[in-house]
Amino acid sequence: MTYQTLISASELKSRAQYLNIVVVDCRHDLSNPAFGREAYAAGHLPQARFAHLDELLSGPKTDAAGRFHGRHPLPDRQQFVQAMRELGINNDTQVVAYDAQGGMYAARLWWLLRWIGHSDVAVLDGGMAAWQALGETLTSEIPGPAVPGNIQDLSSLVKTVDAQTLLDNLKSQTLQVVDARAPDRFRGENETIDAVGGHIPGAKNRFFKDNLQADGHFKSAAQLREEWLSVLGDPQAAVMQCGSGVTACHNLLALEVAGLPGAHLYPGSWSEWSSDPQRPVATGH
Predict the structure, then answer these.
(1) SS in 3 state form for 6-34?
(2) Phi and psi dihedrals of 29, rounded to 5?
(3) Residues 42-75: pLDDT tens digits?
(4) Catalytic residues
């Protein structure tokens, strides 16, 4: 049995010894990039390895021509494959990603592995808190270098769109854009991260935290399906975006849990879109 969306802490505990498994700590703080590595050193799940959002799960903010592609562009595909090999991941490895932020960073690794064609990757539902709630301990012991894995770059299991596609979509309106940011930032209020506040014209707002219950676990598949069908029609004609392409992956994971696969990611998201004054901006609801 493999896991391709979520895995519970109890399932991880009971199956870890039987699965060819790599656990990856994805904790991060956008305002303090050193936080994740420091938190990992202080205590993490046994045998977990660390993946830094800025270093492993993102690429350079600007390309060779100096064009800005957002705060967390996709990494170079081959460099990402190599980084996953260095974590000890093989083609048949079950990967479990976790964080302590409701899955907002773990979902990025989940999506990226699907991007290179690896389906057996799941987010730990409830994160570190769920693991500790079982009475399981954390460790500060850093595992030694992994035996290099052999994961390959296979056909992508996900789809992306770029800014030009969404610019064209303003006229065609064939794609429904869904913004994962908090409602106030979507409206253009209290913007503290990007230079311009607002959203892509025509976008709807679905705050990623609305995918979660009060205890930090994902809502049931049935509840997620009902809620998401009130936001969009055909997921195949939907685009998920956020501030920089990270929490949009949380919405993509929720759609998979809900049995509504096929939506696209706009990796550059608002940080890229708003960097060009020629692109229109909407505010309010």
Answers:
(1) EECHHHHHHHCCCCCEEEEECCCCCCCCC
(2) -140, 120
(3) 999 999 999 999 999 999 888 877 888 889 999 9
(4) 242
DSSP category for residue 46: T
Q: What is the pLDDT of residues 180-232, one digit of tens each?
A: 999 999 999 988 888 899 999 999 999 999 999 999 999 999 999 999 999 99
Q: Which amino acid appears at position 203 of this protein?
A: A
Collapsing DSSP to helix, strand or coil, 178 comes out as strand
Structure tokens at 10: 């109890």
Q: What is the pLDDT of residues 151-173, one digit of tens each?
A: 999 999 999 999 999 999 999 99
Cα of first residue to Cα of last residue in the chain, in angstroms, is 44
Check: CB of residue 216 under 8 Å from CB of residue 129: yes
For 62, phi and psi rounded to 5 degrees? -125, 150
Evaluate the CA torsion angle 135, 141, 147, 149 in order and state its sign: positive
Contact 105, 28 (CB under 8 A): yes
Average pLDDT over residues 84-93: 97
Q: Which residues on neighbouring strands pair with residue 139, listed in sequence order?
A: 44
Could you give the 3-state DSSP secondary structure of residue 49?
Answer: strand
- Indicate the residue type of 156: S
Q: Taking a C-beta distance cutoff of 8 angstroms, is the pair 7, 32 a contact?
A: no
**DSSP designation for 222:** H
* Helix intervals (H) in 123-215: 127-133, 163-172, 183-187
Look-up: residue for tokens 């570190």? 128
